[in-house]
Design brief:
- It is a single chain.
- The protein is of the alpha+beta class.
- The chain is 48% helix and 16% strand.
- The strands form two sheets. Strands 5-2-1-6 form a four-stranded antiparallel sheet. It has a two-stranded antiparallel sheet with strand order 3-4.
């Protein structure tokens, strides 16, 4: 539990984080991937290059600071992020790694302004917030695995059909290799694909919305081919050009808040 003094410190640092948020999160990701390059296998590297992930994390940290006394108010955001984490395979043991590198990033960016009291308050606040995520995500993992036809982590699917819808859109009909029934999904949900691209050191994970109705024998995703100069284009071009009917792809169970 945070003391009232620590809560006051967290709230008082919110304006500073708003000013330096993306500097802190950019430094954080540099540290994280330098110290733990294996995490590049699950994080969207395109979002890193475009600065999207840094901005999203900065906004999440600021929201937590501003609502540190009433964290229940940010639960909708927590649940949305937790769905993404469950989909890509974030695990509880990775949270301390994230916390250590985040505190180091705060210290590096704020310099002498990062007093011992501030760093200790943020260390404890991160622990509280991380435990919320871990608990929410544990329930999501359990639900994904225990539902009818569910599974844990990634499971091999094969491309039953590949249909060119237009010059830039191609649909992929995916069926489980083990022929087990598919768990249901709701409109607005998505699956994560983990692809290994020749010449790339790390795997690439992308989320694609399910574009067919639930209850069938396959999942359908419709992928837009992005420009080869767009960082996101590496996966979409790989799917369009190199993935064919009969090929297998690991995917995670449907995730996301339904519409």
């Amino acid at each position: 539990m945070l003391t009232n003094y620590q809560k006051e410190i967290i709230k008082s640092t919110a304006p500073v984080l708003r000013e330096h948020g993306t500097k802190i999160t950019s430094r954080f990701y540099n540290l994280l991937f330098e110290n733990h390059p294996e995490l590049l296998n699950i994080f969207n590297q395109a979002n890193q290059k475009q600065g999207k992930q840094q901005l999203a994390l900065a906004n999440s940290i600021i929201a937590a600071a501003e609502h540190i006394e009433q964290l229940e108010e940010i639960m909708p955001v927590v649940e949305q992020i937790a769905h993404k984490h469950r989909s890509i395979g974030v695990t509880a043991d990775q949270y301390p790694i994230v916390g250590d590198n985040l505190l180091q990033a705060i210290a590096d960016v704020l310099g002498e302004n990062a007093t011992e009291d501030i760093l200790n308050a943020w260390r404890d606040a991160y622990g509280v917030i991380a435990n919320i995520f871990i608990e929410v995500e544990a329930n999501m993992y359990e639900q994904a695995e225990q539902q009818e036809g569910g599974w844990k982590g990634y499971k091999e699917f094969y491309v039953a059909q590949k249909v060119k819808e237009s010059d830039v859109i191609t649909s992929f009909y995916l069926r489980p290799v083990d022929q087990q029934p598919l768990p249901p999904f709701n409109p607005g949900q998505y699956i994560s694909l983990k692809v290994s691209i020749p010449g790339e050191t790390y795997t690439h994970v992308r989320q694609y919305s399910l574009s067919n109705k639930a209850g069938g024998e396959c999942y359908r995703i419709s992928i837009k081919r992005e420009s080869e100069y767009d960082p996101n284009g590496i996966v979409s071009n790989f799917m369009h050009e190199q993935v064919n009917e009969g090929d297998t792809i690991p995917i995670s169970a449907p995730a996301g808040i339904s519409h």
